[in-house]
Structure formats: structure tokens, C-alpha cells
């Protein structure tokens, strides 16, 4: 979390934010009288006045104002630049138009906070340039999106421009002459709103994050221009029947727990238009009760997104970039607006970690709370976030132990995630010591790096990143789940079987019967503590129940330097064979391959001063393959990342079991090594009466056994006999701690 941030001058504030840390958000100020056609309506004049009076007393707010002032003053000195659009994302004109909406917003805020007319005039002059340019534009010349923009290569970015520029315009609109106001109203904002919502009505009416930005931009424009038709169009869709529009998107894109259909990364991106427009609605039409809508789902979405982070980084599920963190503009916005609504002191600790706030009433409330010492640790916790509008299309499971940079196990039992989804049902991730240990590739993309496909998705996103073998879940017969058809995947949810976050054992299980014809996949993951182990360990049991013999591949994409390999293998020394020719296999080099063996084996690696031993076994002989991504990649688009693949062939049914153990410490500076040897002696799996038993034997001689039933009936009794011992339990799972007798 060391990269610099571009500050955004204004993100929508609340109607009457608190002026003391103890106060909570007050009721919204009434809408301006109809006779006042130009005064600010997104932030009231009285709130602007209070911010101007209080700003210097609160360091975070003062620092943000100073940062914005530096950026705006530098742009003023350089001169206004509103270029003819020509570039893809990351190109010069793209970045300039992006900078301009920030400058319009920033200059508008600075005018209200300082009273210096030079800022209002600067924002006006930029907008006058757009009033001259925009009516001359057709489709963007480099547009490759299905819906091309005018200022940008895709209409999405035009929508983002409208969301932020409308806020700056609202702040200065009452300083303009009637002629200037009419020209900017008509030739910029009305034209853009018509382009997005009339000329691209099908795009506007989608249930998708692109349409969220579009509805937010058009709706906020409607408030600023005092045009209720634009507002109604934004809220209820182009037909005004409620089957589309902003409210319908809230209905269909969020689960009752606030989980977003496309996953945490796109929840981060979509959060901004949802909460910014919601604030505009609350300001202008408080009777709608937008923040109470669907039991407060937008506020739940802020909490759920923060829960879906590790050490500040957003979990890289679906088309995610691995470096996005809580300091992103969208999350800064969400935290500030949520704090103004709830007064949750845990959000202040997030804001403190973000290191910045907003030039808005919400941002001032954050600055006041932090300055008063009201911050409390955010309550990160083990939880399950249901997916789907009714919460019945799966769930994202988050299991945590220790502090925010200790152990976290993630199981992805969600639905597809629309077109941004990956073919990775029952995928898992594991974090420890501030690092991703079992990791996910995310998207094959260099965001806004023009030299890499204009900053858009690379070809390898389809051929590698979305494919099942690129993730930590079971691939059957060298194919991806749903044969790589996301629309078919979207028709099928994942079934959560159990979730329990009790002391000592946290466990989650899920199932899909639709990823492959004739194959039912069931996976159970547990985070288990034991006094003889230095840290909690992750136990993994993956089962496939098939109708005919198949080849099963279970990859583990691990992060670290291999220390010891607990199995014999033939190495590819003179040339690197490629694993396959489709479904992502064509991008994997094979570095080592073992024979098909019974019994348990292991692999130990080192990352950031800690050792990790992965011990694994299966129901039939398996090969172990050490592979690396990057094959068939002539443009060097893929990161080189390693994986262990366990392969079982010729069996209709398969069970794979493993335990991942963090242990020891390595200090290169002090030249010390402790605990580099695993404290686990062996792992076994045994089949019983409609149940599986995993036995982990520790170096101390003690055993931890985990019994997992095939079905989750609470009253069903299960028995597994191992040698002279009997393990029996009632219900979906049980833990047994014993001394070794064999």
C-alpha cells in the first residue's frame, strides 16, 4: 500500500453531516425552492459554508483540500486542455479527459470552500470547452466496446465523467450568466444524458455496473438541472416501469447480505455510483428512504466489501486486479458516506488506514471523528456472504483467525458473476502473515497500460485467466467448468452445505452438480487450531462423484520458493513440455512430474520469512506435476506463477485430501532459521458410512480427525472405522482429538 493516490476533489456528501465526532448524520436539508434554479442541490449551501468554516481545524480534511488545491493550481498554470478524443484507455487524450472531470469537481469544491471566484471561473472555462467540443463528436474513433463512448473509447467512461463533472458543475452553476448556464446545461449535460439514456437505451437499461454508472450520471444531472424526467428515467429505466434503472439494479445485483453479483473487485468499482447517487437521492428526496431500501442493502454492501479484503487488499476473485486496495476512490467514498449514515467508529479506523478523506460533508465527518480519537478497530470477522437477489445462489465464505494479517481462508461458492465471472466454482484462497499463500490469478490485463492492448483485457484473459485450471478447483478431462460458457454458468448457482465458525474449527462446505455433465463436485475446507501447532492449518477435502471414469486435475497455485519436495519426480531439464492444448492447459509448462502413487506426499515452500508445508493424499494413485504459467505467450502477457497439480486418471469417483500448515521462521538478516520442519507427520483419508474421515497425525503423536458427512442432515448418524478405532458422530461434521495408537 505504498503507491501514490490521485485525489478526487469532490465525492457526493450527505445532506447535513455532523460537526462533532459524537454527532451522527442529521436529517437532509430540504430541496432548494423551485424559484432558485441554480443553487447547489447535491451539497447544500449551508453545508458548504460549514465545511469552509470548520475545514482547517481537522487535519485530514485540511490535507485533502491542500492536495486538491495543488492539483487544480497546477492545471490552471498549465492551461485548459480539452483534446479531440482519439486514444484507448491509458492514452493521452483518455487520461486528459479523465483528469478534467476531476479538475471540474475539484475546482467546484474549492470555490465553495474558499469563496475564490478564480476556481469557479476555471471550472466554467473547462465546461465551455466541452460545450464547444461535445456537440461535434460521434462515436469514439478508437472505440472497441460494444457501446462506444464519445469522449472515451467506451460509454462506461463517459458515464463516469458525468457522475463527477455534475458534482463540480452543481457547485458553480449559480455563478454563471444565464447564457453560459444554458449553453453548458444543453450542450454538455443534456447531450450526454441523452446519449447514454436515449441513444443507448438498451445499454442504460442493463442490470450491470456499466448501467449503474450511467443511471447515476443521468440521475444526478437531473437533480442539478431540475429535470424530474431525467431523475425518473434514472431510477426506473427508460420505460419508467421499474423493470430497469437504478432501483432495479439494487434489487438484482446485491444479495440480502450486500454481496455484489460480479464479485468483490467489481463491487469496489460499482460501489461509487451506487452510494454517490444514493446520497443525491437522500439529499433531494429523503422520503424515498434510499439507505433503508431493501433493509439497508447499500450500507451492507460497504461492510461486505470491507470484509472481502485481506491486509487492505481486495480479494482477487473474478476479473480482478491483485493490487486494488481500500485506498481506491470508490472505497474512500463508500466509507465516508456509510460513516455519515451509521456513525460506526470502526469505519474511522478504515479511513485512517486510507490516509485521506473527501471534500464533502461526509469527508468532514470522517476527519472530525479521526481527530477526536473516536476510531475503533473495524470488526473483521468470519462470515458467509450470500449471493443472488434472494440469497439462494451460493455464498462467499470468509474464515479468519487472529488479527487482520493472520490466517484467512476464502471459499468461493458463489454464482458465475456475469461476464466478469471465472470458471472456478468451489475455488479457495489462503492468506497468512500478510501474504497470499494460495493465490488467484485474477484478470490477464494491464489496466490503462496502452501498450498492452490499450489497457483492456488481453487475449490470455480468455485462454488462461478465466479457465478452471488457472484456479484452485477441480478440472475434469482437461475442460473448464460449464465448458467455458459463462452464460450457461450464470444459470446455475452453487449450493452451500454448511458453515460453522466455532472456536478451534471453522468449516465450510459447498457443492455443484452442474459444472460437468454427470459429475457432482463437493468440497469442504476447514481452519483448524491445535496447541501442538504454531498456527491454524487449512484442511481441504475435495470429492468428485462421477458416472464414468475421468481424468481429474486439482491445482494448487501457491506463492513462494520451493524448499523441499516430498516426492520423487522426473524433471524437464532440456526442454519444457506444455501440459495441453486447450482450456488454459496450453499456457502451462511442466517442470516436474511424478509417477502415480498412493500414500501421502508433501511440498514445502518459503515466503516472507515463513515456511508452508502442503501435505496431500487421495482415494487412488495420483501424479504430482509442478507447472508454471507462461507457455504459448509470445507477447509476455502472463505473469510467471507456479502451481502443483494433482492428477488422478481412470476413476469415476475421486477424493483429494490435503492439509496446509504454516510453520517456522527464517530471518536472512539475523541468519536464523527456526521451525523449518513440519509438525505434521502424516495425513490419511478413510471412507465410511456416507462420510469421509481425514486424520492428521502430528509429530507429537497426537491426531486431529475431521469427519465430514456426504449430506448435511442434522440428525443423521455416521460411522467410520479405521483399524481398531471407531469414529462416530451425528450431524454434518465432527472433530476428534486423540493420541496415536498405531
TrEMBL record:
Q: Its domain of life?
A: Bacteria
Keywords in alphabetical order? Lyase, Periplasm, Signal
A single GO cellular-component term from the record reads:
periplasmic space
Residue span(s) of domain Heparinase II/III-like C-terminal: 384-652
Keyword Signal among UniProt keywords: yes
Q: Does the keyword Lyase apply?
A: yes
Signal peptide location? 1-25
Q: What is this protein called?
A: Alginate lyase
Amino acid at each position: 500500500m505504498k503507491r501514490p493516490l490521485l485525489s478526487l476533489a469532490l465525492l457526493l456528501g450527505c445532506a447535513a453531516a455532523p460537526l462533532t465526532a459524537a454527532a451522527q448524520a442529521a436529517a437532509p436539508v430540504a430541496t432548494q425552492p423551485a424559484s432558485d434554479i441554480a443553487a447547489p442541490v447535491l451539497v447544500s449551501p449551508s453545508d458548504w459554508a460549514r465545511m469552509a468554516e470548520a475545514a482547517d481545524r481537522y487535519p485530514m480534511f485540511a490535507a485533502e483540500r491542500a492536495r486538491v488545491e495543488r492539483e487544480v493550481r497546477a492545471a490552471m498554470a498549465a492551461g485548459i486542455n480539452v483534446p479531440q478524443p482519439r486514444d484507448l484507455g491509458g492514452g493521452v487524450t483518455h487520461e486528459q479527459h479523465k483528469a478534467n472531470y476531476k479538475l471540474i469537481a475539484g475546482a467546484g469544491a474549492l470555490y465553495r470552500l474558499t469563496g475564490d471566484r478564480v476556481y469557479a471561473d476555471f471550472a466554467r472555462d473547462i465546461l465551455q470547452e466541452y460545450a464547444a467540443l461535445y456537440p461535434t463528436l460521434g462515436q469514439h474513433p478508437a472505440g472497441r466496446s460494444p457501446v462506444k463512448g464519445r469522449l472515451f473509447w467506451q460509454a462506461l467512461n463517459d458515464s463516469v465523467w458525468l457522475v463527477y463533472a455534475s458534482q463540480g458543475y452543481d457547485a458553480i452553476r449559480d455563478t454563471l450568466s444565464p447564457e453560459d448556464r444554458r449553453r453548458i446545461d444543453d450542450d454538455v449535460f443534456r447531450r450526454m444524458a441523452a446519449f447514454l439514456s436515449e441513444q443507448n437505451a438498451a445499454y442504460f437499461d442493463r442490470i450491470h455496473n456499466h448501467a449503474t454508472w450511467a443511471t447515476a450520471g443521468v440521475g444526478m444531472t437531473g437533480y442539478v438541472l431540475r429535470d424530474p424526467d431525467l431523475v425518473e428515467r434514472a431510477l426506473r429505466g427508460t420505460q419508467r416501469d421499474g423493470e430497469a434503472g437504478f432501483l432495479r439494479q439494487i434489487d438484482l445485483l446485491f444479495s440480502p447480505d450486500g454481496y455484489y453479483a460480479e464479485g468483490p473487485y467489481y463491487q469496489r468499482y460499482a460501489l461509487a455510483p451506487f452510494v454517490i447517487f444514493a446520497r443525491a437521492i437522500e439529499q433531494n428526496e429523503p422520503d424515498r428512504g434510499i439507505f433503508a431500501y431493501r433493509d439497508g442493502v447499500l450500507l451492507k454492501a460497504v461492510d461486505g466489501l470491507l470484509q472481502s479484503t485481506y491486509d487492505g487488499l481486495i480479494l482477487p476473485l473474478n476479473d480482478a486486479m491483485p493490487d486494488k486496495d481500500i485506498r481506491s476512490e470508490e472505497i474512500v467514498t463508500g466509507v465516508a458516506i456509510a460513516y455519515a449514515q451509521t456513525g460506526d467508529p470502526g469505519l474511522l479506523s478504515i479511513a485512517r488506514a486510507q490516509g485521506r478523506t473527501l471534500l464533502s460533508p461526509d469527508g468532514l465527518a470522517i476527519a472530525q471523528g479521526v481527530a477526536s480519537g473516536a476510531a475503533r478497530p473495524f470488526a473483521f470477522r468470519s462470515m458467509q456472504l450470500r449471493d443472488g437477489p434472494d440469497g439462494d445462489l451460493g455464498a462467499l465464505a470468509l474464515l479468519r483467525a487472529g488479527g487482520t494479517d493472520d490466517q484467512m481462508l476464502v471459499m468461493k461458492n458463489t454464482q458465475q458473476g456475469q461476464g466478469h465471472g471465472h470458471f472456478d466454482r468451489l475455488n479457495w484462497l489462503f492468506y497468512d502473515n500478510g501474504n497470499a499463500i494460495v493465490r488467484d490469478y485474477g484478470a490477464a490485463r494491464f489496466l490503462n497500460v496502452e501498450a498492452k492492448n490499450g489497457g483492456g483485457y488481453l487475449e490470455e484473459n480468455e485462454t488462461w485467466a478465466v479457465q478452471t485450471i488457472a484456479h484452485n478447483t477441480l478440472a475434469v478431462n482437461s475442460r473448464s467448468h460449464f465448458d467455458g460458457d459463462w452464460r450457461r454458468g450464470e444459470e446455475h448457482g452453487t449450493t452451500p452445505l454448511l458453515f460453522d465458525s466455532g472456536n478451534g474449527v471453522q468449516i465450510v462446505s459447498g457443492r455443484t452438480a452442474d459444472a460437468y455433465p454427470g459429475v457432482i463436485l463437493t468440497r469442504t475446507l476447514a481452519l483448524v487450531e491445535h496447541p501442538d501447532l504454531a498456527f491454524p492449518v487449512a484442511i481441504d477435502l475435495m470429492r468428485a462423484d462421477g458416472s464414468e471414469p475421468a481424468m481429474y486435475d486439482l491445482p494448487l497455485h501457491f506463492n513462494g520458493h520451493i524448499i523441499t519436495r516430498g516426492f520423487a519426480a522426473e524433471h524437464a531439464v532440456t526442454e519444457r513440455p506444455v501440459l495441453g492444448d486447450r482450456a488454459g492447459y496450453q499456457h502451462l509448462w511442466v517442470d516436474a512430474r511424478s509417477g502415480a502413487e498412493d500414500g501421502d506426499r508433501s511440498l514445502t515452500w518459503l515466503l516472507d520469512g515463513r515456511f508452508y508445508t502442503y501435505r496431500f493424499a487421495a482415494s487412488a494413485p495420483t501424479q504430482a506435476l509442478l507447472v508454471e504459467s507462461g507457455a504459448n505467450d509470445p507477447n509476455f502477457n502472463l505473469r510467471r506463477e507456479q502451481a502443483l497439480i494433482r492428477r488422478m486418471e481412470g476413476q469415476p469417483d475421486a477424493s483429494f485430501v490435503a492439509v496446509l500448515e504454516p510453520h517456522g521462521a527464517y530471518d536472512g538478516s539475523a541468519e536464523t532459521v527456526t521451525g523449518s520442519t513440519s509438525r505434521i507427520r502424516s495425513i490419511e483419508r478413510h471412507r465410511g458410512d456416507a462420510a469421509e474421515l481425514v486424520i492428521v497425525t502430528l509429530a507429537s503423536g497426537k491426531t486431529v480427525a475431521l469427519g465430514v458427512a456426504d449430506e448435511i442432515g442434522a440428525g443423521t448418524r455416521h460411522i467410520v472405522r479405521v483399524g481398531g478405532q471407531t469414529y462416530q458422530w451425528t450431524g454434518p461434521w465432527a472433530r476428534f482429538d486423540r493420541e496415536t495408537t498405531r
